[in-house]
Specification:
Layout (H helix, E strand, L loop, with lengths): L1 E6 L5 H12 L3 E3 H8 L4 H8 L3 H22 L3 E5 L4 H10 L5 E7 L23 H25 L3 E3 L5 H14 L2
Parallel strand pairs: 1-3, 1-4, 2-3, 4-5
């Protein structure tokens, strides 16, 4: 089974992935790692990432995500891939193109974050903690817009989306885990 946990930045994906990996002995990889390597050799991905254009970035990243999923299902019976870089439409496309692959997913977002909601957490993404108030405010606006796009895409493709604006953080992660482990 390939588990895809995706969504907007700073919404708990890595926190949940680390927890699931530890509790269920589930191998995981972050799209941060994949995108970091790829941006060195795929100029279009680097440009989209620097332009802060998540949709363009996702379109450029998709063939690499598809290959990662194709390889993962051969080498590991179960794998969790978490992070940014793809939308619900890409999961639907994966399911069509790799019809024999068992893929489950859940998307996380925050449609109305405050700047102070975006710092801390258990992951090593500490770069956000160094941002000044103006940068955090801009990040909050970007996360909200990204989350709204993901929510809309999730609804269009019938895929689960958990909004941190609607649930306390621990409850949101529990909901996401239930969706991820039970979604079809």
């Amino acid at each position: 089974m390939i588990y895809l946990l995706a969504g907007a930045p700073r919404c708990g994906k890595s926190t949940l992935a680390h927890d699931l990996s530890r509790r269920r002995n589930l191998p995981s990889v972050s799209t941060d790692l994949l995108r970091g390597v790829l941006m060195m050799v795929v100029p279009e991905l680097r440009e989209a990432m620097h332009a802060n254009d998540p949709e363009r970035e996702a379109e450029v990243f998709y063939p690499h995500l598809r290959q990662t999923v194709a390889c993962s299902r051969i080498q590991l019976p179960h794998q969790l891939i978490e992070g940014v870089g793809f939308f619900p439409r890409h999961v639907a496309k994966l399911r069509l193109e790799l019809s024999d692959a068992a893929v489950r997913c859940c998307f996380l977002g925050h449609t109305s974050p405050r700047p102070e909601d975006l710092s801390g957490g258990e992951t090593n993404h500490r770069i956000y903690d160094t941002l000044d108030h103006a940068a955090r405010t801009q990040l909050a606006e970007n996360v909200a817009a990204w989350s709204c796009d993901i929510r809309q895409d999730s609804a269009a493709y019938g895929l689960p989306f958990v909004d941190l604006a609607e649930h306390p953080f621990p409850e949101a992660l529990q909901r996401a885990e239930r969706h991820l482990l039970a979604s079809g």
